[in-house]
Amino acid sequence: MTQPESLTWGASFGALQSEGAALTSDWFDWERRGEVPPSFDGNGFAVDYADDFRLLRELGADGVRLTLDWSRLEPAAGQPDRAVFDRYREVLSAAAAAGLQRWVVLAEGPLPGWFSIDEGGWRQRSARSYLWPRHVERVADTLGDLVDAWIPILRPVSFARGAFITAAAPPGTRNIGKFVETVEGAYLASFDAWRVLRGDRPVALGVEAAMARVGEYGAETPARLYDSVQWAWVEAIRDGVLQLPRMTQHRVDEMRDGFDAIAVSFEGTYVVGADGRVARDRQYEELQALLHRLAEKCPDRPLWVAGHSVSTGDPKADAEAAEQACSDVDAVRRDGIALDRWIWEPAVDGYEGATGFAVPLGLFDRDRHRKAAADVLQRWSDKRQRLDG
């Protein structure tokens, strides 16, 4: 097989990680209750975004993944904040001026409290089928001219796991049924968003497809559950059927032709404990194995790595992880895998949920000093450009 013709790459600025929790989000209430450290202004992206885009471009990046925070855009149901829409227009325009493609996420973990708490979030059909599409359409109409690609919901499994398995995210209850309902609802909400967004710009289905393996005695059931919910979307886009454990089957016939790409977030293999908690185990060629599996299941759609998060906070180890990541990306493309986009996560050290600011994972620190991993990516990018030239 021959290598695909093109690859664009970039890095990410998640809303919570980069801007901190919006005052009307469910995560801000979680912080206020003392469940997690305060996020403040994240890494200052709301002020420094133009310089941040310049730093990425200097590395040779082609694009940037941005989350437009729903909690800020619509702080109360049906009451969009026009000033926030204007600010995000300035952010997207600055990315365009820097020569970066804009890959936009509409939901990434934290949600408006009025949606997730008052209306039941992804679990409630009325909320995801009316309130959510209304928001998607508003963003598309107002900002869509500055967007190059859409990922409606980035990680449909992780936040649901924190909310209802490990109680590490709001509302912090343990309920397997609500976990599965939430993941199912997020898949269906992604489909609803695709109906609104399809057209001139590609729309990707955000998925998580980590290999889940048993880490201790008693973890067989949660490991099987994670594997089932992570891969349930495949049958939906292949056969028009969405079936999650314990849930009623949904016919979604039009989804057989839905989405222009599959956007997978990669953090390593899940090592599952008996209580449902997961640890990360990153091994050589792990990403390659995952992308080959995805290509086998979805041979008719390009793949995007929508978030490659393998940093540990140790500069030497992170540089080695970046070297391995570049090698993996090149290898899968030589194998003929249609990997179109690759996004390193995150661009700049910021807020990381339960650990706060304690673990610096970015290519740049909060003072925008470059790290060794950034040097690795720049050398790799320069080499690609020489070969392409």
What does this protein look like?
With 389 residues, this protein is an alpha/beta fold. It has a single domain (8-388), classed as TIM Barrel, CATH 3.20.20. Helix content is 43%, strand content 16%. The chain is built from 14 helices and 13 strands. It has helices at 15-19, 26-32, 45-58, 70-73, 82-97, 113-118, 125-143, 158-164, 176-197, 220-231, 233-239, 286-297, 315-334, 372-388; strands at 8-13, 63-67, 101-107, 149-153, 204-208, 212-214, 241-242, 250-251, 261-266, 269-272, 278-281, 303-308, 339-344. The strands form three sheets. The protein has an eight-stranded parallel beta sheet with strand order 4-3-2-1-13-12-9-5. Strands 6-10-11 form a three-stranded mixed beta sheet, with helices on one face. The longest helix has 22 residues, at 176-197. The chain is globular, with a radius of gyration of 19 Å.
User: How many E strands?
Assistant: 13
Which series of helices and strands comes N to C? EHHHEHHEHHEHHEEHHEEEEEHEHEH
Beta-strand content estimate: 15-25%
CATH C-level class is: Alpha Beta
Radius of gyration: 19 Å
Distance between the termini: 22 Å
Write out the CATH superfamily name. Glycosidases
Task: Report the CATH topology name.
Answer: TIM Barrel
Instruction: Give the oligomeric state.
Output: single chain
Widest sheet, order of strands = 4-3-2-1-13-12-9-5
Name the CATH architecture. Alpha-Beta Barrel
Low-confidence segments: none
Q: How many distinct folded domains?
A: 1
Structural class: alpha/beta
Helix content: 40-55%
Helix tally equals 14
Apparent shape: globular
